[in-house]
Specification:
alpha/beta; Enolase-like, domain 1; TIM Barrel; 2 domains; nine-stranded mixed sheet; 12 helices; 13 strands
Length: 344
């Protein structure tokens, strides 16, 4: 039987953020990516988003753009399956157009972690967000002077509301001694986990990767505060590798960057892994696909890493406004065609 052919369309974007995003990777002022649309003969439409993160993997928007142009306007399953394995975000975007899960009736809402700015602005922002009802806060560290940031940690802990928790995200900025210093400090503080204290650069050799992996496992075993993987899950096979290694901490999953979202989640579910669904600073198209999968997750629930919006000047491209609890109906109401039209 011949493979079903669908009409493939895509639109490229370069969208400025409302304000700069500061991390250990540098200051980001905009986001680049592609929205993809597949339509079948009956008029059924599927949506996906390909938005590789700069400095995360070797995948680029230019490479994804070229691959889509080579596919042409009409594609079948065989053509889509032949895409290069290095284009994980593109493969995941096209998988999303064909595998959008239905939203289950429960849970009615999921908790959200609010994103704090790096540096001295964080305490005042935390207080405002706490007054708005947030109880989990993610703070970018490894951006400024370590002594200054360690001092701010105590101030942030002092401003937490009752039951409040911090998540620290170093984006791989620390070396071993500094990571140990932070983890010693965090041991007596309300810190959910420390995300990616060390990492290797994309394209690093096998020896460097093994050294970083061993260091992460050693830190996880030596300190009571849990660690979380993020940059270490950037490539195809990384989730499988860490599951096989018996990683004891969290998996912060930017699912929009993975080639096979359903298979990745199935593996983590079998391993009873602690998963935090996280934004990759994508538009509402990619966010909607990830949030739908978060609703179907069968494991233990942790606050979503989606307290990032509004990000873009055009509201039609944003996901749900950051609130302490994201409701099921807020995800169901996301208009993906409006995002597509906003790029026309």
């Amino acid at each position: 039987m011949p493979s079903v052919r669908r009409r493939l369309q895509f639109r490229r974007y370069r969208l400025p953020f409302r304000g700069p995003v500061r991390t250990a990777h540098g200051v980001w002022t905009h986001r680049e990516g592609l929205l993809v649309r597949l339509e079948d003969a009956a008029g059924g439409v599927g949506w996906g988003e390909c938005a590789p993160l700069p400095g995360w993997t070797a995948e680029t928007v230019d490479a994804a753009d070229a691959a889509l142009r080579e596919l042409g306007e009409w594609v079948d399953e065989d053509a889509l399956d032949r895409l290069p394995s290095g284009l994980a975000a593109l493969r995941g975007a096209l998988a999303a157009t064909r595998e959008t899960p239905a939203l289950p009736p429960e849970p009615a809402a999921l908790g959200v972690a609010a994103l704090l700015p790096a540096g001295a602005e964080a305490p005042a922002r935390l207080q405002a967000l706490a007054e708005a009802g947030f109880r989990v806060f993610k703070w970018k560290v490894g951006v400024g002077d370590a002594a200054d940031e360690l001092g701010l940690l105590d101030e942030l802990c002092g401003r937490l509301p009752p039951g409040g928790r911090l998540r620290l995200d170093a984006n791989g900025a620390w070396e071993r001694r500094l990571a140990e210093r932070w983890l010693e400090r965090c041991a007596e503080r309300p810190v959910d986990f420390v995300e990616q204290p060390v990492a290797v650069a994309p394209g690093a050799g096998e020896r460097e990767r093994r050294r970083a992996d061993d260091l992460l496992q050693g830190l996880a075993a030596a300190f009571p505060t849990p660690l979380a993987l993020d940059e270490s899950l950037a490539g195809d096979g990384d989730v499988e590798r860490w599951v096989a290694a018996g990683w004891p901490g969290f998996f912060v999953l930017k699912l929009a960057l993975h080639a096979a979202p359903a298979a990745t989640l199935a593996l983590l579910a079998r391993a009873r892994a602690r998963v935090v669904f996280s934004s990759a600073l994508e538009t509402r198209v990619g966010a909607a696909q990830v949030l739908r999968r978060a609703w179907t997750w069968s494991g233990e629930r942790h606050a979503l890493g989606f307290g990032v919006w509004p990000l873009f000047a055009d509201r039609a491209l944003d996901g749900p406004v950051a609130v302490p609890f994201l409701r099921r109906e807020d995800v169901a109401a996301l208009d993906l065609e409006a995002a597509w039209n906003a790029l026309a």
